[in-house]
């Protein structure tokens, strides 16, 4: 099924499907689990619109490319253009909050990193960003103090809170907008807490954002 941004009640959002702008390392506990250095400036990367998928569509992993890891992340839908914005401009530009997976071909990414190459093929493949429907901004009054979690086959793998981000989400959006214009319909992924790990065919997932639960499964 073709991806379209939706509200929680299933109604379509009148925004085009744009790019996804992501941050590589934004939770200290996740940086430590991968033995990465704490970055001096945020590490940004992008996924194209073809990476977006509805979370309720069975997730298909690329075959024959090694382990694919889940990274559960708060997703922010951009409703207004942001260029060289400040944090307050970013805050009022939010059209919705959701939760998604930054699917990562970890073996491939490690290989690319070792060679000093860009990560695109490990992060930006078709379907690499399954997304939940979006809550209206006033339905998540404290986006910077919100629990997010991921359960795989009934076991909690990732449990975090957005207050543990090193760069807050509105500062992050502002920073991103100094590098790439954020357009209405773009999505910002805000980094993952600790607990990333491999997914396998047939896995069942539960993503939690505050009191909202979203089921997903792997084909
Ligand atoms: Zn990520």
Would you give the CATH topology?
Fumarylacetoacetate hydrolase, domain 2
The CATH architecture: Alpha-Beta Complex
Q: What is the CATH superfamily label?
A: Fumarylacetoacetase-like, C-terminal domain
Terminus-to-terminus distance? 14 Å
Radius of gyration: 16 Å
Mean pLDDT across every amino acid position: 96
Output the number of helix runs. Answer: 5
Q: Helix coverage percent of residues?
A: 10-25%
Unreliable parts? none
CATH class: Alpha Beta
Order of secondary-structure elements? EHEEEEHEEHHEEEHEEEE
**Total individual domains:** 1
Attached small molecules: zinc ion
Structural class: alpha+beta
Choose one word for the global shape.
globular
Largest sheet descriptor: 5 strands, mixed
The count of β-strands is 14
Strand content: 25-35%
Reading side by side through the largest sheet, how are the strands ordered?
2-1-11-5-6
